[in-house]
Amino acid sequence: MASSAQISHQSAFRFRTSSLAMPVLALSPPLTASSSSTAVPDHHMHSKQNSSDETPIPDDEQDMQLYIQDRRVIGYEPLVQPALLRHEIVSSPASLRTIASARYAAARILAGKDDRLLVVVGPCSIHSPAQAIEYANLLKQKIPQWNNLLIVMPLITPRLPLSEKPRTTVGWKGLINDPDIDGSFKINKGLRLARQLLCDLTAIGVPVGSELLDTISPQYISDLISWGAIGARTTESQLHRELASGVSFPIGFKNGTDGSVTVAVDAMRSASNPHAFMGVTEQGLAAIVKTRGNQAI
Fold first, then answer.
1. Which class is 4-15+91-290 in CATH?
2. Pairing with 158, which of 42, 147, 222, 234 sits 20 to 30 Å away (CA)?
3. How big is the CA angle at 291 (ends 290 and 293), to the nearest 5 degrees?
4. What's the chain's average pLDDT?
């Protein structure tokens, strides 16, 4: 049996990506603030206009508190609870079979017990659920021809059809963060669109993979994912390694932005061990998350 180090090195090279023809969304112009945003308190507007660290320190005690806290925050909007969204958009029995069978097969491939190659196939970003479903139907027709492959369609990931898209600088952040592609950042709408799309794709019989960008959004969609990814920009992040240690599906780490594979191998070793970190529950409550470690990497 191969050692954990050997398996980690093998896993780092096992994933391949290919692409079928599909329109890819071009980056949108610089985003602007939405006129539909919730009202912003006066002190927040003041903070936005005078957020420079060179702003004179106020003498008044109340002004001092406003000066110290949230100087660069415009406002807050409530986020739908993960449990409520899961209750609202429920996966079908067909979806559950697709997800479970793909997770099982992917884990066996990573463990060297299945000779097939795990291939992630799809466009870089998804901005149109209708086009994503059309693409999935075409892909589904081809899957029976490739018995030596386990096909996974990316949906929210790094170089996969995205719900969330990591950006090196600025630009469109993906279907979840900005579903209308206009800078309005209707994240609740994006979460609903992404979850419904995942349900639709898996109901067709196409497994879906996604990049994990934070410790909150997985609570909304992780039950619909068959394979996860940690991108080049976050492979070195301890927070993402901790998150990967607790997800219920196989996961892969991309090499670092400098091309180093060592970073990915170190991340795999870390994620295979138990961790404890701060996260949220399905009810949206802040909590200490304790994990067992993920061996399917």
1. alpha beta
2. 147
3. 155
4. 82
